[in-house]
Amino acid sequence: MGDAHVTTQEDRRAVTPSLVADGPRPAGSTRTTARARLGSLRSPRRPRLWFEILLIAVSYWLYSLVRNAVPEQKAAALRNADWIWSLEHSVGLAFEETVNHAVNSVTWLIVSMNYYYATLHFIVTIAVLVWLFRRHPGRYAATRLVLFATTAVALLGYYLFPLAPPRLMRGGGFVDTVLLHQTWGSMASGNFKQMSNQYAAMPSMHIGWSLWCGLTIFALARVPWVRVLGLLYPAATLVVIVSTANHFWLDAVGGMTCLAFGYAVSYAWYGALPHRLPKVVPARAGRGRPRALRRPSGPSGPTAPAARPSAPSAGRPVAPRRPEPDPAAAVPPTPPGA
Questions:
Q1: In a domain, 53, yes or no
Q2: What does each C-alpha distance from 8 to 18, 190, 313 come to in angstroms?
């Protein structure tokens, strides 16, 4: 007989395929992994409350710090205000002074607008963020990115184009309504004027933020009258910033331009406008054990692995197996005539 081949435990280890490849990964696999990670970062995720509160607080603190750190270039800001005022006169749309004096003649109305300007800018924006967090978690991050990008690019405008508000123009005839009526809240008039950069009027973030709120509500709200209110909010804000002589109407155009930039950044990152993204973040697959290493499940649970035959002792020859006897051959034939 020929030599019997002995299969040892070492042989089994040598031929058993490994689930993890040894050695360096190919370049194509590395690029695929990088693309997968980037795709994961660009996919909407459910926001975390503590992180969002911290992010918004730190971001607004940095925004205020940078905005107020921009040098108050008073001479340049006044020259730019005169140029804006002349430009509006040349196109026949220099109506801010008329509106300012008309609204200022109605005390209760102008005082209400002063408080509107000082408070709703923050209250409504935060309320919309909370609503998005609770009702539209899948769209929250993309919509928040619009707001952050809008605010960030506005800082560039404050630095490159310092602009005095109409109420600070030389000989403009505008009324500083907060200073006149002694209403609380404006960071650019009265007792608070030393705490804020008064020559950062272009672009208007009152318009940028209010229009962000209005478009978000209009796109995502279901109740018709709520959607209408969403559109009325930035329109009312435009009336307020002009009536209180805090901005030219061209400052509002600057705020709209910054918002358009914010939407472009969000679209480039997420591949869709915020309202086109899913409302709820889908459950992420692949948590826990990697999918490739999971055992297949049968009707009654995981399938048990097949039992391995016991390995013979090393060095012993394997005896040849005897053939099984044929049951039919063991029965004697029946004699004829029986």
A1: no
A2: 18, 91, 8
Say whether 189 sits in a helix, a strand or coil: coil
What is the Cα–Cα distance from 176 to 287, expressed in whole angstroms? 59
Please state which of the ranges 104-118, 232-246, 271-285 shows the lowest mean pLDDT.
Answer: 271-285
All residues at 6 or more sequence positions from 211 whose CB lies less than 8 Å from its CB, including other chains: 234, 255, 256, 259
pLDDT at 296 (0 to 100):
44
144 found inside a domain:
yes
Q: What is the C-alpha separation between 322 and 202, in angstroms, rounded? A: 98
Domain, as residue range, for 224: 82-276
28: tokens are 């194509």
The pLDDT-based confidence of 113 (bands split at 50, 70, 90) is: very high
- Residue 76 forms part of a structural domain: no
Decide: 153 and 208 in contact? Cβ < 8 Å.
no
* pLDDT, tens digit (0-9, with 9 covering 90-100), for 134-147: 999 999 999 999 99
Q: Is the pLDDT of residue 9 over 60?
A: no
Contact 202, 254 (CB under 8 A): yes
For the chain, the domain total comes to 1
State the residue for tokens 């905005």. 67
**Residue in this structure with the two tokens 């649970």, named with its chain if needed:** 301
Q: d(Cα 220, Cα 230) in Å, to the nearest integer? A: 10
**Global pTM value:** 0.70
- Give tens-digit pLDDT for 21-73: 445 555 555 666 655 555 555 666 667 777 778 877 887 787 777 776 666 68
- Cβ atoms 108, 181 nearer than 8 A: no
Q: What is the pLDDT, as a whole number, of residue 64?
A: 73
Cα–Cα distance list, 193 to 68, 238, 274 (Å): 11, 22, 37
Alpha-carbon distance of 248 to 87, in angstroms, equals 11
Q: Which residue has the tokens 């309504």?
A: 177
Residue 161 belongs to a domain: yes
Token pair for 34: 């990088």
Measured in residues, the chain has a length of 338
